[in-house]
Amino acid sequence: MINTLEKIHYISDANITAPIGFHADGQHVGLKHKSKDLGWIFSEVPAAVAGVFTTNQVQAAPVQLNKQTIKNGQLQAIIVNSGNANAVTGKIGLTHAKIMQATAAEQLNIPPHLVGVASTGIIGQILPINKVVNGIQQLHVDGDAHGFAHAIMTTDTSEKAITIQSEIDGDLITMSGVAKGSGMIHPNMATMLGFITTDANISSTMLQQALSEDIDTSFNQITIDGDTSTNDMVLVLANGLASNTQIKAASAAYNQFKTMLHTVTTALAIAIANDGEGATKLITVTVSHANNALDARLIAKKVVGSSLVKTAMFGKDPNWGRIIAAIGAADVQIDPDIIDITINHFFVMKNGAPVTFDTTAMANSLSQKNIDIEINLHQGAASGQAWGSDLTYDYVKINALYTT
Amino acid sequence: MINTLEKIHYISDANITAPIGFHADGQHVGLKHKSKDLGWIFSEVPAAVAGVFTTNQVQAAPVQLNKQTIKNGQLQAIIVNSGNANAVTGKIGLTHAKIMQATAAEQLNIPPHLVGVASTGIIGQILPINKVVNGIQQLHVDGDAHGFAHAIMTTDTSEKAITIQSEIDGDLITMSGVAKGSGMIHPNMATMLGFITTDANISSTMLQQALSEDIDTSFNQITIDGDTSTNDMVLVLANGLASNTQIKAASAAYNQFKTMLHTVTTALAIAIANDGEGATKLITVTVSHANNALDARLIAKKVVGSSLVKTAMFGKDPNWGRIIAAIGAADVQIDPDIIDITINHFFVMKNGAPVTFDTTAMANSLSQKNIDIEINLHQGAASGQAWGSDLTYDYVKINALYTT
Questions:
Q1: Which positions bind substrate (chains A, B) (predicted)?
Q2: How far is A44 from chain B (nearest CA, A)?
Q3: What is residue A402's predicted lDDT score, i.e. its pLDDT?
Q4: Which residue, A132, A185, A318, B13, has most beta carbons within 10 Å?
């Protein structure tokens, strides 16, 4: 998909409530020690919904519930808590998720089947449902939209949000996204929650198709630590209040919608990688001239997921041997003797052999926050990217001390 | 295979030269700053050989060379250097490996096709071949056998060796093994070198079969960091000087030989996991009641390879939610609702639900070096194990600073 960036306008005050008819709130209700831990998003009218969920076989209660709820193709609200994942909590977990759903529905005066539920936090502890129920009663429809972005955070250090605008068929469309997640981020979405709102008018079938097609090149291409969560989900609500002609099939309008969606999902995915637990670097791996896009993505993700590459980048060490070793370990047929590798645009390997580079200039370059690794396979015409963080003392610290 | 441990005797002075007719040496020749970096093993007569090699598509020059050399089924010597992997060094790398082979052959007065070559260390730097050639001329046939075990080490903190004896058909058989490897240890053998000597009389065909069958339950079940090396290999030399009737087919004698081999390979594999870079813990994961042994091994390895499980164990934190999340992310069909998990024999999860445990007793238990995680899938009758280390500040330190 060509990213028609010239038609996309970034709005500086990124806000999940920027699209017409959306409202949100986020509050502290006592699930976490001090910070905000409960929030909701509400649309004035039922919205078309699309969702993608973790591939982990162990699925948190809210994931199980949402998969059922969104089958009708509509949602009007999403209630989210942090501080507790409501995962691996036995049968009571699903009961708790349903109580969250019903309580939010009652408070918003809408049917429960229009309410999605999400949880994130520690696995295997029973959700303190009384705090959640009481907390929901403290939420407002016209509340603190930035508070929502904060209420879904766990070890995240910053709010992750984007708002863009573009035209579809001459109508102004607004799309916003918020996300959380900085650990257990791997293969398929991992402790990651993403919520996207738009006032575009699109059928739920085409919305789901757009999201499903997009995910493999955005959220599924980030990795922090190779662990896959029980709670991941991305939900998109499209409430149609921009009044464009409904997108019902593949078309120019659909392509423009997908471009907008990809802009939002990629920005959120990179924001998550950038805020990886303990990260000091954002590592972008670009694989070009692969036989196909899947090959390119697999190799990019293998490299960005290598603990040895990640520690090398933390150490500002251009140890490209670890990069080629990771390439060779990916499940993709390659010819090591024709591969070129650059780190921050310095060639380190050409035609499979070492290249001398300016070590001082390289060292300066590796002191920057952004590391670009480019791999030219010299096989075909396809390319792909993946994003990740370095592996640092602080990653170990954060994760050695998380529950206790 | 039933491990008939009662028939295996462990020899306290583990030594690669314990089997009849083997000699070894290890010296410092200047490839590393101070420590030993070149060594060889020599058998008085040509020995049957078996080998297994890295599955990485990027294969170091000595790996490429050995695959050719051992096709004749015999080796009489192995020359090994550390400090430089001779990997991704272009065409000159293979030339250098052949020079190592020829120089050692000349010095030992045997044909080059009876000499195996191995290298380990930094990837992508040209091997200083003059130092190697001069160094080979300093090696002795009756040299320092423990020196050999040290000469193959990189970031290893201790020599890894084992010697056992047992009887096959009434003849006393001795078998020894040495190994190195503490980083880039994953799926398939990873920066790991293993050399096993025995005076057993066995055909090279049966020797290869025994090794190939064994490797999936020993060396391939350890993981330190998920990275797969370009240089891994395990070579077994069986010189027949114990004069037992040659093992030529599946038989009681072959089974006993396999039991001996498994004792050696498992001990070396666990020693490697125990010495994982920066490790403070040896983590053993045992999966029982799986539908088949492969399923059990896959899950065991997924759990022991999880960065979040590894950091939790470093933090002495019984965060079993990360264990069940890793189980669910393995590519094996499971039923989360019937799984039991224990950590150091304390139940933490039963029938897929949390279990209350004595947190003080658990905390004391997690202060020990050895962590045992047991997972009962309640599906079938098969079991499997995997071994790994925790993920610590020192792992990051070692790998952030390795080349520079």
A1: 154, 180, 191, 277, 399, 404
A2: 37
A3: 53
A4: A185
3-state secondary structure of A373: strand
Does the beta carbon of B230 lie under 8 angstroms from any beta carbon of chain A? yes
Q: Are A307 and B403 in contact (CB < 8 Å)?
A: no
Q: Which CATH superfamily is domain B5-274 in?
A: L-amino peptidase D-ALA esterase/amidase (3.60.70.12)
Contact B317, A402 (CB under 8 A): yes
Residues forming CATH 3.60.70.12 domain(s) in chain B: 5-274
Does the distance separating the beta carbons of A400 and B315 come in below 8 Å? yes
Write down the residue that tokens 């001082």 correspond to. A360
Contacts with B135 (C-beta within 8 Å, 6 or more apart), sequence order: B27, B29, B30, B31, B37, B38, B81
Measure the CA–CA gap between B324 and A233, rounded to whole angstroms: 18
Task: Give the separation between CA B310 and CA B185, rounded to whole angstroms.
Answer: 14
What are the beta bridge partners of residue A202? A247
Q: Which residues of A touch B322 (CB under 8 A)?
A: 123, 184, 227
CATH code at A282-400: 3.10.20.340
* pLDDT single digits (tens) B71-95: 999 999 999 999 999 988 888 999 9
- Whether ipTM tops 0.90, in short, is no
CB of A27 within 8 Å of a chain B CB? The answer is no
Region of residue B124 (phi > 0: left; psi between -120 and 50: alpha; otherwise: beta): left
Q: Which conformational region is residue A69 in: left (phi greater than 0), alpha (psi within -120 to 50 degrees), or beta? A: alpha
Is B401 close to A322, i.e. CB distance below 8 A? Answer: no
